[in-house]
Amino acid sequence: MSLTLLSPPAAEPVTLADLKAHLRVTHSDEDALITGVLVAAVRAVEARGGLALMPQQWRLTLDAAPEETLFLPLSPVSALDAVAVIDGEGAPQTVAASLYDAVLGKTPRIRPAGPWPLPVPAVGGVRIDFSAGYANADAVPEQLKLAVKILAAAFYENREAAGERRVYSFPQTVDALMAPFREVRL
């Protein structure tokens, strides 16, 4: 199973101005650095929480059709864009929507409702393309925006790599802010 970003977000959920206000930075000398730590913080929050904060498209590639319910690895999911199997000529063949049930939103999943066509390649023969992320920056929950700001501030203040005397750890406040948005599966 692999996950590939097809279309990255066009913007970040926190603006440079908002982050600079959070950092109490009034000059523009470090705007490039602050933008970099902002992007790094957003990607870290997304990766740690299995989240997509802004609209983006992804492809989940599987070796075979799911036999049971398959939970998509990111949330929230707003659309299932395409479900396909690869045929003998290497072309994607759409799986009819009647052959699966899909649930979108915070706990996105897809469950087969009938037998899917068999993919010809033994590896990577099933593709599930989906759109994930909140509709826009205004729709991103404030707790997640605050998690991004706190993590970006930690990155900004601690620019050195971890070493003998310094160990990097994810701020507990960020984990606490993200907790309600994480999917717990038993």
Automatic annotation (TrEMBL):
Signal peptide (residue range): none
InterPro entries listed in its UniProt record: Phage_CHP, Phage_gp6-like_head-tail, Phage_HK97_gp6-like
Protein's name according to its UniProt entry: Head-tail connector protein
Lineage: Bacteria, Pseudomonadati, Pseudomonadota, Alphaproteobacteria, Parvularculales
